[in-house]
Amino acid sequence: MVDESLVPTVCPYCALGCGFYIKLGKDKTGIEYMLDHPTNEGALCPKGNATLEILSHPDRLRFPLKKTEGGWVRISWEEALAKVAEEIKKTIRNHGPNALGFLGSAKCTNEENYLFQKMARILGSKNVDSCARRCHSPTIPALNRAFGSACMTNPISDLANSDCIFAIGSNFAENHPIVARWVLRAKDRGAFVIVADPRLTPTAWLSDLHLQIKLGTDVALLNGMMNVIVGEGLENRKFIDKRTVGFEELAERLKGYTPEKVSEITGVSPSSIVEAARTYAKSASSAILYSMGITQHSHGTNNVSACADLALICGQLGRSGAGLYPLRGQNNVQGACDMGVLADFYPGSRSVNDVEAIHFIEEAWGAGPLPVGMGMTAETMPVAAGDGDLRFLYVMGEDVINSDSSSSRGRRELENLDFMVVQDIFMTDTAEMADLVLPAAAWAEKEGSFTSSERRVQWIDRAVPPPGEARSDLWAILELANRLGLDFDYSGPEEVLAEIGRIVPSYAGISRERAEARGGVIWPCPFLDHPGTPILHQEEFSAPEGRARIVPVDYLPPAEESSLDYPLLLTTGRVVLHYNAGSMTRRSFSLMKRAPELFVEVNPDDADRWSIVDGDLVEVNTRRSRAWARAHVTTRQETGVLFMPFHFPETNRLTSDVIDPEARIPEFKVAACRIGKMKGV
Ligand code: SF4
User: Fold this and answer.
1) How far is the CA of 41 from the centre of ligand 1 (A)?
2) CA pair distance 192, 164, nearest whole angstrom
3) CB under 8 Å to 93, separation ≥6 — which residues?
4) What is the number of the ligand 1 atom nearest to the C-alpha of 40?
5) Atom of ligand 1 nearest to the CA of 177
6) 593 CA → ligand 1 middle, Å
7) What's the DSSP call for residue 240?
8) H helices within 123-254, ranges in order?
9) C-alpha of residue 590 to centroid of ligand 1, in Å
10) Cα(58)–Cα(426) distance, rounded to whole angstroms?
11) Its pTM surpasses 0.85
12) In this predicted structure, what is the pLDDT of residue 1?
């Protein structure tokens, strides 16, 4: 007789929070589809289907490890935690608390991230950040300014109710494949799909209108569309007058963005700009989807503001089918932001400069004074390490080296740290640089809550035990905090979630039991009987006086342009079979079988010019470094543009470290480069 049970869980990869069951049998563990999950209705993309492969991978870290001159040596948890506590105390004693840095993880639970930043801030360090900095940090200031809250406005499934779907800088068919199911359902109902992307991606293929814009010209395109809308009187006057401020200034600013002028900047024909503008504005309900093609720019915050402006002037918000969808990257990136694992925000999106809000948290925690003001970010911590201002770094669940732009520089800088501890499930390149490595439990080996991109908070139970002596991140944080005298007395993650509810108003009504129900709860959920809030901004915005702010922005070119030495432009992105820096998917047998190596896509004209044929090994150079990749000759992008996925370590050695001045995200999407066939190959 087979001893089987089904443990509900959520996918650990992208931020859609797809649900499935882990099926426990006597001899093997498998996946059972969760047909009644509200986001994915049983479907999983290739990554979701391959999730279990990493749990039993032979590379899993099983014991705490200490680096010695003779290599890695296994040590006890007691020795490891005592050493980390000693190094933290020594750093504070010798250099002050701001010489400590803490990088949390969008792969860890809400409870783990909450306690991680709480520990850091009670110790007195401002330097708390996460990989959210590298994917959607521009969304936070731009949407907070516009709407008063910085998140997806409608559920993914509500896309099926849209009449027009406008995706800009999002290849969702590969990167968030379950979104494509809902978009196709809308198309079946007759919806019109517009995709603005420099590449002819699978997402562009399913569109009715592809706007193949030049890299980094998004603001020009969005302003051009708004120029048409205002010029033809297609704006939603009633919505603008009743629910927004700032329209007149925008209307004035848009005058310079005629379709003809915008066409020169973007490469999109004036007639296509007009068609896109009219369709978006006139449709009964239109949705905008955007992702890192919008945010990972030196003007990423402006890009997001322009998306918000377009939605606001057309009144395409606050209704079913009408919304703004920032599609997040990792499975708990929304939760990590909500928990305050950001250098600019305490939990609940409270600004680090809001002294009154910080007093509230001091009272709730019974601790203080807590640090006030902006801390170092995921990007500036390595720089500070190089300058000697950051001495200690605690990395939880991220391969920061391979996620960083211009990563060779970051590697050199982090070597200057006095001490680095990395807590992870695999020996990543970042862990290899650490002085001490703590073995972490993977998502299915622990319990806690995750918040998906659509604000859906879902609880998962432990399905299988972690390997060896690996422990949950929560356990490690509690043990360490208590060795530091912080008196973190929690019986388990449900008690941490209860405290989160007292600190973060949107989570006040979310208990473990509610988050355990099928599909969890969508925040804001301000009290226990509250049903959750799938659609935001229905009556009013969270911004002052309930009115949204229209923020005019101008087009500015990308930081790097092509030159004689670097005549091409490199852009980066994701592919369907890999995820993030690849620390998990590059250890997944079935995914690696289908996508085994780094490639660079080259237009046939460029391939001819540099005598490259499909399958050649080529060298790509930028002003920072060089990388080798397999050439894929394809018409997916126009002449002059190369594309490389960032799931292999070499790609981010090449990317630009110019940052958006407000959100401090690097311009991963545009770097001047050159290409050449590798000699002797
Ligand atoms: Fe996992 Fe995202 Fe794929 Fe869903 S779409 S199965 S959450 S990777």
Assistant:
1) 12
2) 5
3) none
4) 4
5) 5
6) 19
7) H
8) 132-135, 139-147, 172-175, 177-188, 202-205, 218-231, 237-243, 247-254
9) 16
10) 10
11) yes
12) 42
Taking the centre of ligand 1 as the mean of its atom positions, its distance from the CA of residue 452, in whole angstroms, is 11
Angle in degrees, CA 478, 480, 485, rounded to 5: 95
Which of the listed residues 178, 331, 579 should we mutate to test ligand 1's pocket, taking the one with most ligand atoms within 8 A of CB? Answer: 178
Report the atom number in ligand 1 closest to the C-alpha of 51: 1
| Structure tokens belonging to residue 462 | 């432990």
- C-alpha 230/C-alpha 241 separation (Å) is 14
Report the alpha-carbon distance of residue 92 to residue 9 in Å, rounded: 40
Residue 342: phi and psi, rounded to 5, are: -145, 140
User: What is the residue type of 675?
Assistant: I
By DSSP bridging, strand 192-196 and strand 71-74 are unpaired
The tokens for 225 are 């569309």
* pLDDT tens column, 437-480: 999 999 999 999 999 999 999 999 999 999 999 999 999 999 99
- What is the separation of C-alpha 659 from the centre of its chain, rounded to a whole number of angstroms? 16
CA-nearest residue for atom 2, ligand 1, is: 14
Mutate to test the pocket of ligand 1, among 47, 451, 574 (most ligand atoms within 8 A of CB): 47
Cα 596 to Cα 54, 550, 577, 586: the distances in Å are 16, 45, 10, 8
* Domains of the chain and any CATH numbers: 82-133+331-506 (3.40.50.740), 153-326 (3.40.228.10), 568-677 (2.40.40.20)
For residues 430 and 502, the answer to whether their CB atoms sit within 8 Å is no
pLDDT in tens, 61-113: 999 999 999 999 999 999 999 999 999 999 999 999 999 999 999 999 999 99
d(CA 627, CA 644): 10
Q: Please give the helix or strand (H or E) that residue 392 lies within, else none.
A: strand 392-396
As a whole number of angstroms, the distance between CA 150 and CA 160 comes to 23
Closest ligand 1 atom, CA of 10? 7
Question: What does residue 269 show for φ and ψ, rounded to 5 degrees?
Answer: -65, 150
Atom of ligand 1 nearest to the CA of 579: 8
| Contact assessment for residue 207 and residue 192, using Cβ atoms and an 8 Å cutoff | no
Residue 109's pLDDT is what? 97
Nearest CA to ligand 1 atom 4: 18
Q: Which residues contact 124 (CB under 8 A, 6 or more apart)?
A: 92, 96, 97, 98, 100, 371
User: Pocket residues for ligand 1 (CB within 6 Å)?
Assistant: 11, 13-14, 16, 18, 40, 44-45, 47-48, 176-178
Q: Which two tokens stand for residue 7?
A: 């443990």
Mutation test residue for ligand 1: of 44, 460, 580, the one with most atoms within 8 Å of CB? 44
Nearest-CA residue for ligand 1 atom 3 is: 45
How many angstroms separate the alpha carbon of residue 11 from the centre of ligand 1?
Answer: 6
